[in-house]
């Protein structure tokens, strides 16, 4: 059995004291040898953590010990190695950044659809199926027939909705079609469906537990999923049964790389890939090459190049401080 339990978790719930929760949560995770990233905001908590099974389960119990987080959602998978280099607990304005104020995801989210019922819903030709993940995530896998909004970040989603809400668009305001949305673990869907409902759309559905729960629950022979699912840790992607996939990360631009990408003459490990070749300054390239030398030295010594836990820092002053 794999050594490390990975838990993706979130909950939309008012946390007026979220700033005070940061340091105790960081220390509790560190004491239980748990790494990953947790985001705290006034609207709730979001993140993915990994570590020894007993450590991760202790953190989940600790979080649910707060009555406000008793119903915390989490999804489990396993990794052969620790998929995170560090532990980070961050303060944010939003636990998933859309940039639209007063979206009440905890009360306005659309109707949950269980993974085992999802195929029937998205098979209906009258239902508009929307992948609310970012473009680079959609590129390596999605549901058959799903619409790709081609967003580079979740903050672009409201603008795409406004464009498609015009006459003749996929979300024509006059017709108000039935809409089914999905994302990696469910959190972006809760906010995006709440946003659509705030715009007057009544029949809005989302995949409960996201793609990860679907891949864990639905047998591959019955699946409508094509490709792999991008995950925000060192596994990079997973397939059915949440088994680690075949993608790796470009250390220069952080985009997922297929075997074909790595075979490209534009690929240089740790320095550039077909997605980012020619976009870096000479100073950046110098730093990437210096870093890659250290990575290769650590590899020869059979050690990790980086991995120490990051100490708690003062609250970030902007959404980009993540």
Automatic annotation (TrEMBL):
Question: Sorted alphabetically, which HAMAP family does this protein's record hold?
Answer: TrhO
Q: Has keyword Transport?
A: no
User: What's this protein's function?
Assistant: Catalyzes oxygen-dependent 5-hydroxyuridine (ho5U) modification at position 34 in tRNAs.
What GO MF terms are annotated?
oxidoreductase activity, acting on paired donors, with incorporation or reduction of molecular oxygen
Protein name per UniProt: tRNA uridine(34) hydroxylase
Enzyme Commission (EC) number: 1.14.-.-
Major enzyme class = oxidoreductase
The residues covered by the Rhodanese domain are: 123-223
Q: Which InterPro entries match?
A: Rhodanese-like_dom, Rhodanese-like_dom_sf, TrhO, TRHO_N
- CDD domains, per the entry: RHOD_YceA (cd01518)
